[in-house]
Amino acid sequence: EAGVVQSPRYKIIEKKQPVAFWCNPISGHNTLYWYLQNLGQGPELLIRYENEEAVDDSQLPKDRFSAERLKGVDSTLKIQPAELGDSAVYLCASSPGGSASYNEQFFGPGTRLTVL
Amino acid sequence: AQSVTQLGSHVSVSEGALVLLRCNYSSSVPPYLFWYVQYPNQGLQLLLKYTSAATLVKGINGFEAEFKKSETSFHLTKPSAHMSDAAEYFCAVSGYSGSQGNLIFGKGTKLSVKP
């Protein structure tokens, strides 16, 4: 069974440029999460999807961040424009179904973003 | 509101020694508790989870953790460290569902294993 796939693995951009990250969850997983992980910190939730619906985006900075999950499968997270402080690892995770937390979340390898 | 405190950002042990990584939580609802491991340049992998069944939870790679409600703790242990255990470990807490079902992570503890 393939795991959560993320691309690109690494991205270097200049500030004020746009950037997009892509995530393909494990097949059949209805719940998809995007996390931000700063250096030396634990992951912090940005947005959670149940199928194609964003059910929790309270931590997503909506002035510059956007996300979509068309057709309830893969998802894209975008930053426009990027700022120096956005340098971090962006993790995607998926779980089998529902928001019940005993469902294990499976994490992708992450995209490491560097903003110069 | 829920939170996690991991005591010690860096723990170093000798190969074969006991591993003890500390986690204390705060939760306004009965908690679910998790330990994840992260190897360099990889995502997080679930080691074990407590979901209100047995208080002593056994996980992968010989790790276990004990839920102690009176101490609000969920410390991770392994009797004998291997070199391959060197990684970063994250404790996380959540409630049952909805926004309380979101995982709240600690800041992590980096485990080093000396030969």
Written account of the structure:
- The complex is a heterodimer of chains A (116) and B (115).
- Chain A has 116 residues and is mainly beta.
- Chain A has strands at 5-7, 10-13, 19-24, 31-37, 44-50, 53-56, 65-68, 75-79, 88-95, 106-107, 111-115.
- In chain A, the strands form 2 sheets. In chain A, strands 2, 4, 5, 6, 9, 10 and 11 form a 7-stranded mixed beta sheet that branches. A 4-stranded antiparallel beta sheet of chain A has the order 1-3-8-7, with no helix packed on it.
- Chain A is globular.
- Chain A starts with a strand and ends with a strand.
- In chain B, strands 2, 4, 5, 9, 10 and 11 form a 6-stranded mixed beta sheet that branches.
- The model of chain B has no long low-confidence stretch (mean pLDDT 91).
- The A-B interface holds A 4, 40-45, 48, 56, 58, 91, 93, 98-102, 104-105, 107-110, 112 and B 4, 9, 32, 36, 41-46, 49, 51, 90, 92, 94-103, 105-108.
Structure summary:
The complex is a heterodimer of chains A (116) and B (115). Chain A is mostly beta strands and 116 residues long.
Descriptive key words:
heterodimer, A: 116 residues, mainly beta, 7-stranded mixed β-sheet, 4-stranded antiparallel β-sheet, 47% strand, B: 115 residues, 6-stranded mixed β-sheet, 0% helix, 54% strand, globular
Query: What letter string, H or E per element, gives the SSE order of chain B?
Result: EEEEEEEEEEE
Strand content of chain B: over 45%
Helical coverage of chain A, percent range: under 10%
Q: Give the N-to-C terminal Cα separation of chain A.
A: 37 Å
Given the structure, what is the number of helices of chain B?
A: 0
Mean pLDDT of chain A: 92
What percent of residues of chain B adopt helix (DSSP H or I)? under 10%
Question: What gross morphology of chain B would you assign?
Answer: globular
Largest interface: A-B, 24 and 28 residues
